[in-house]
Amino acid sequence: MKNFTQPINLSGGLPFARNLLATACFLVMAQAGAAGFITDAKQVSGQEVRSGEGYYRADGNWLVYQAEVAGENPFYQIYLKNLANENVQQISPGIGKTTCSWVHPSQEKVLFSSTHDDPEAKAKMVAEIEQRKSGQRRAYAWDYDEFYDIYEADFEGKNIKNLTNTKGYDAEASWSPDGKLIAFASNRRAYSEPLTEEETALFNNNPSSLIDIYIMDADGSNVKRLTHTNRYDGGPFFSPDGKRIVWRRFSENGQEAEIFTMNIDGSDQKQLTRLNKMSWAPFYHPSNQYIIFAANVEGHRNFELYVVDVDSKKEPVRVTEEEGFDGLPVFTPDGQYITWTSDRTPDKKGHLFHGKWNHEKALESLGLK
């Protein structure tokens, strides 16, 4: 386990990062969001090779995120930041790949997905390092590794427990606001259930095509499938009141995605966006009035942040204006700040950014005032 200090300073005396202080030369001023949605934006990571997808605990005192740190493992690992004293603890074992972490709302537990139980995990790490040394660059593609399982661990990265232990991609998990349920994405049925000829062909061509949203109890029991399509349904998050789930559904060709919400039993599925672009990574504002997400409306590789009201009565409104990638947005628990992942850096690699969020402007722009 690694315990070290990263240049992620979200403290300043108050739990919800009300005073973002600059830390050494790694902090870079970023442009304000479109029409002032985001102000005082700063880069808050940089010591790592790359980092992103950070999430807060309900009390605002902890931030969990994934980062690639130079060393023998070229893949992301999971880190937990204590925002009061700046200490960072590695949570994941350091073997294999990890993704999609979350902090329990009240207990000292972290949720994440990992392939560390894959017998070939170390061999795959070595192969990835050699691939990078060769100078050959592969086109970006997300890895739906069948050895991904969902784990929980304590704040020291110990007492690791496998909650899914099922062949197939189990990832993209988050606890409900009361900590009693977990929503996640999985293509497990492709490995355990009979498939039609069409489904078999789809899965062989693209393993993500059979990924659906599932829900289970926090101990991994009572697993229930919520979506039933031959498209990629993923990235689920609970609403602040715990009554609904927001997620993104890919098109049949996998080139587009739209934002949806539904009740936690899978009923009342509603489509919120119709942009015919890649809209993904949706996240509720704590007010439960609107959702923020990323979309490439401005160009294939130019992802910007947008907001849409929870009833989709108005077209989504653009939030950021910066060439490149802005995505994976989350709000601090008090809704006054926003943290997201962006490559608006000199090295063009993803890092965490943080800024003041203009809630009143968001309400006004969506006609909610």
TrEMBL record:
Signal peptide, first to last residue: 1-34
Keyword Nucleus carried by entry: no
Keyword list, A-Z: Signal
Keyword Signal: yes
One Pfam family from the record: PD40
PANTHER family reported for this sequence: PROTEIN TOLB, PROTEIN TOLB HOMOLOG
Protein family according to the UniProt entry: Belongs to the TolB family.
UniProt-recorded name of the protein: WD40 domain protein beta Propeller
